[in-house]
Structure formats: C-alpha cells, structure tokens
Amino acid sequence: xxxxxxxxxxxxxxxxxxxxxxxxxxxxxxxxxxxxxxxxxxxxxxxxxxxxxxxxxxxxxxxxxxxxxxxxxxxxxxxxxxxxxxxxxxxxxxxxxxxxxxxxxxxxxxxxxxxxxxxxxxxxxxxxxxxxxxxxxxxxxxxxxxxxxxxxxxxxxxxxxxxxxxxxxxxxxxxxxxxxxxxxxxxxxxxxxxxxxxxxxxxxxxxxxxxxxxxxxxxxxxxxxxxxxxxxxxxxxxxxxxxxxxxxxxxxxxxxxxxxxxxxxxxxxxxxxxxxxxxxxxxxxxxxxxxxxxxxxxxxxxxxxxxxxxxxxxxxxxxxxxxxxxxxxxxxxxxxxxxxxxxxxxxxxxxxxxxxxxxxxxxxxxxxxxxxxxxxxxxxxxxxxxxxxxxxxxxxxxxxxxxxxxxxxxxxxxxxxxxxxxxxxxxxxxxxxxxxxxxxxxxxxxxxxxxxxxxxxxxxxxxxxxxxxxxxxxxxxxxxxxxxxxxxxxxxxxxxxxxxxxxxxxxxxxxxxxxxxxxxxxxxxxxxxxxxxxxxxxxxxxxxxxxxxxxxxxxxxxxxxxxxxxxxxxxxxxxxxxxxxxxxxxxxxxxxxxxxxxxxxxxxxxxxxxxxxxxxxx
Length: 618
Known about the structure:
Elements lengths: L2 E2 L7 H6 L3 H5 L3 E5 L24 H11 L4 E5 L6 E2 L12 E4 L9 E4 L9 E3 L9 E3 L1 E4 L6 E3 L5 E3 L2 E2 L16 E3 L5 E3 L2 E3 L6 E4 L12 E3 L2 E3 L6 E4 L5 E3 L2 E3 L6 E4 L7 E3 L2 E3 L6 E4 L5 E3 L2 E3 L6 E4 L9 E3 L2 E3 L6 E3 L30 E8 L2 E9 L5 E9 L12 E9 L5 E9 L5 E8 L11 E2 L4 E8 L4 E2 L3 E10 L8 E8 L10 E8 L11 E6 L15 E6 L24 E5 L6 E9 L5 E7 L2
Parallel strand pairs: 2-3, 3-5, 4-6, 5-8, 6-9, 7-10, 8-11, 9-12, 10-13, 11-14, 12-15, 13-16, 14-17, 15-18, 16-19, 17-20, 18-21, 19-22, 20-23, 21-24, 22-25, 23-26, 24-27, 25-28, 26-29, 27-30, 28-31, 40-46
Antiparallel strand pairs: 1-2, 32-33, 33-36, 34-35, 34-37, 37-38, 39-41, 41-44, 42-43, 42-45, 46-47, 47-48
C-alpha cells in the first residue's frame, strides 16, 4: 500500500454516519512515489494514490492529496533505476499543504522532473490563492518546462535545496522557458537552491498587479543564481524581502533588481553579485531599501544603481559594501535617465524627483597619507546646512576611468555635522597596509547615500613620461641612444628604482616575453615629481640572434620599476600597452639584405603626458 493515513481503518459505521470523519481527515497523508511513470490515480479519493497497475506516481499522489483535503501531506520517493520523471502534461496544482521531499534517493541523487514533453506549462504549481499555505518543496531538480520551473501561489511556502533549470549534475542547456522560480505570495522562503540557465529571471517575486501585501515579507537566501537570461533575482512591487548571502553571477541583465514604488524596505545583504550583463544591484523606483555588506564586482554596468523611474526613490542606504571593477560607476545615482558622475550642487538642494537618493552630494578628499600601517585621510563635505552625515571610507586597487570610486575595501566611518553654510571638514585615521585609491561616500539622516567621491591615491605611482629613441641608419647589432624620463604621479614619495628597456616583436611591452636590452637607475621621486631627462645606450642583438624573425616590425619599450622595488598604488601602468598617436621613421637593416622603414610611436600615459615607448615600423 502506497498510503499511510488511517483511511483504511474507517469503519462502515463512520462512513455512513460521518461521526469523527472530519477528525480522521485531518491526519497526515503520506505517499511514497515508487514509479517514475506519469500514469494518473485509478480511483481518486480512495486514499491509495495507486495507478491501474498498482504503482504510485507523482501525478497520482498529487491527485489523491488534492482529493483528500488533509491538513498536511507528505510525498517521498523510493525509486530504483532512473530518478527522472517526465510528465506528459501539466502536473496537478498543489491545492493542499504538502511536503515534497526528493532527498531520500540512494547514492546522493535527487528526483528530477523533466518537462521536455509536458507541453505549454510550468513544472510545479505550489498552492493556490486560497490553499496550500506552508508547503515545502525540497530535494528536486526541475528543468526544461516551457514556462516556469516552480510557481508559488500560496503564502508561507518554502522552496529549498532544489535545482531549477539544471539536473542533479549541473548540466547546461536545461533551463526552463521563462522564470526559474516565480513567486506570487507572501512570507515565501527560497533557500539554498541552484537556479541556473532559465530563459528569463532566475528568481522573480512578482506583484505585477500592485496589490498591497501580495508578495511581501519573503526571504531569498543562500541560493546560487547564475546564467539566467534576464535578471538573477527580481523583486517587483514588494516590501520587506530579505535577500541574503546569495551568489548571483553571469546573468544576462541585472544581478539583483528591486523595482516599482511598492519596492520598499527590502534588505539586500551579504550577497556576491558578479559578472552580470548590465548592473550589479539596482533600486529602480523603490524607497527605503538597504544595500549592505555585498560584494558587487565585474558587472558590465554599474555596481549599485538607484533609478527614480518616475517615482520617489530616496532613503536607499548603500553601506559597507565591496564595490569594484565594474564597467560603469561603483555607485550610480541616475539623474533624469542620464548616467555618469552627478556633480555636487550648492547646499545639496536636490529632491527625490531630481535623481536617485535625492542626488546626495559626495565628500571630497584633499589628502590621503600612509605612514607605516596607518592611513590618515583629510577632506570635507559640502551639503545641506546643519545636518548630520555618516562618511564611509574605502580603498581600491583601481578606479573608474572617470576618476571617481570605487570601494573595494571598507576602511571605516565617521559622523559629521555641517555648519550653517553647509560645510564641514574631517580628518580620520585607520589601520591600513594597502596602497591604492581612497574614496568616500556620504549618507544623510534619511539614509540617502551618495556616489563615491573622487579617488585620491595614498602612495607612489611610477609611470614613464618620455622615451625618445635617437634615430639613425641602424643595423642589427648597432648601439643607439634613448632619452627617457619617469614621473611619480602618486601622492607619496618613492625610493630609488630601475627602468628596463626591451626589444619586442609587438607593441605590448613585457620583460617576461621580450628581450631586455639594458637597464638604467632611477632616483627616488617625490609625490608628483618627474625625473630629469637621462640617456641610456642600448645595443640591438646581432642578425644571428634567434630573436629576429627576419625583416619586419620590431619595437623598443620601457618598463618602469621593472624589479618591483617600489610598492605602488597601481602596478599595472609601468609599461605601455601599444597605444600609438604619432610617428617618426628610421631605416634599419636587420639581415643585411634590405632596408626596412622603422617608426617611433608616441603614447600617452595615464597622466596625459607624452610617453614614447615604441621603436618600430609600419
């Protein structure tokens, strides 16, 4: 018998007179699925959930549970051989409270529901608007349905430890045709699932009708949400959702998106949001949301965005996150549909209709000095008069091309109060051993957080500022002179170092792949200082050297601090990347058989100063 619920023990007297029948019907109905077939229940309502062949399928179990109308029900599985169930049509809506547990399969496998033959439907419909509350779905893999993987329509449902859009072994190409998990109920918990490769959103909490309270108070935690076609996690017109400790990466659009006016008082906390196709975390038309302790990096758009979208979008706290290496600004307060740094305005008179978070003014940093393991930051804020702000400080190994942001590591914070003119200065010190770019944000008493400030380096940064090859009629084996200069574009002095000069077969200069022709000493430089022009004599290798690839194009470049003697804010800009802007030519014979026209190509270093690192030919 596949059912254990007491129904077979009901006497004929009870059946006729109905005495105690309601009490009997409240006992737990427990069915064990022992067939991966899709045959229906042969006698719905008999308490057995058996097919005509005497087996219990998932379809039969769901049909019987709906008919019995019990208070709570359990479906487990005892399958041998294949654990894949392939419905040939839509499975029954789950109309009663139920626990479907696919975790007890031998060898650590989970029950898989493959929708390839189910037609135009979704995988599981958990509950209805009026029934099925507190149901649990766990230990399944649901994939290849034309619509959604799981649709939650009842309050208090838990979906946990389930693969949605992939099988037990995480195979690719099995996504569902719409959303992975669609929620249209409140108090729903989505916990510890793998939501992968679905055509639209990974997890979508959707109050599309705007009904107050319809989808509020949910929890989305410890999920891996990746490679979905649209947003990873989308929360639409929903309040008080707690989005915690999810890995959200490589989705086609936004990582986490909170949208519409009712999208308020949600918490986005301690998530890793990486490599998504547009922005990392977006507050789109919502108020009073909290974005804290997240890692948002390598997203194609901005790290965190606040968009008015026709609604008031203030009071969104963005605090103590790690935001770095995104394609746009670290924090973007969108202004009338326009992106980019939102410049400060006098007395910070913007309102929520002007832009995200009322375009809260950002602080400025006037100095950042590193002494041993202590970093001292001096700066200020110009904002609303007689108002209190929390200033948060960050340090990053790189900055946005705009020169603002980002915030790779949180250093600490301080509270300040502006004077009647709206100004306040600050000076703070933190324990820190990282050389990089210091930035800050300001958050007002209403939790409006600003964009990142302009970045300020806290150490030396050595770059080439001139390389000039003294051209002539050169041959392989000739000695020639090179004039060069080095600039310290950082904010702290550097010690003495070495510059290396290399011969390359391409314009990308590296001492690891190119031939070193010689070195020259570079004296220590103060912050912002440039060395005097120096000359080094270099000798091309003889024509028999295996470096030569016959007559062709070759390049000479300079690598500053080639031995790594100086710890720098930016270690990536010590050699050129082949960006040519002008030409100077020379005739060179490589093998003694013909003349090859050669050029010197000038490039511009990160400070905009001319730097001529290449000696080559078209």
